Amino acid sequence: MLKMAVFVSGGGTNLQSLIDATKSGSINGEIVLVVSNRKNAYGLERAKKAGIQAECIKDDQLLIQRLKEEGVDFIVLAGYLAILSDELTTLYHNKIINIHPSLIPSFCGPGFYGIHVHEHAFARGVKVSGATVHFVSPVVDGGPIILQEALDVSSAKSPEDIQQMVLTIEHRILPEAVKLFCDGRLKVENERVEIL
Fold this sequence. Notes:
CATH topology: Rossmann fold
Helix content: 25-40%
Low-confidence stretches: none
Distance between the termini: 19 Å
Order of helices and strands: EHEHEHEHEHEEHEE
Oligomer: single chain
CATH architecture: 3-Layer(aba) Sandwich
CATH class: Alpha Beta
Strand order of the largest sheet: 3-2-1-4-5-6-7
Mean pLDDT: 97
Strand content: 25-35%
Number of strands: 9
Radius of gyration: 16 Å
Shape: globular
Structural class: alpha/beta
Largest sheet: 7 strands, mixed
CATH superfamily: Formyl transferase, N-terminal domain
């Protein structure tokens, strides 16, 4: 059973979807550590309620040390709004999974996170949006894509409407991607992910 660390910055609803999937046994992995860059992130409380070690860590070297101490095999970014260091992305090459609230390569890269993604999508009048799960690379939102799912957002009246619609997809495809990783079914070749 692989050991994962989950990084959060906010409410942690994607973390909750992972907690639920690991508790039910649908993911053959264990969350051993939840980390936030914000001490008041509700995701830390979610972790504590589930009996998972939860810490606010901002120092990169301390973060790497804690990951090693806990024997972390891979990392999941579940609404983590800080950019990872090159050292960390190199140390966990193709072992860091991120969820992004758009269909990459649309509305991604530096500055495109959280509600900002949906504000841009709404301003452009997009009719279709969705979510992407991808491996993290040193290029922001530039790593190999694992899963994507689209949905019709033409009825949305605000960026918040799009956010709520897309969240339902995030809560489904993030645990699915983590399950595939834990089952050894993801193979990366030439920056493309093959599902075995």
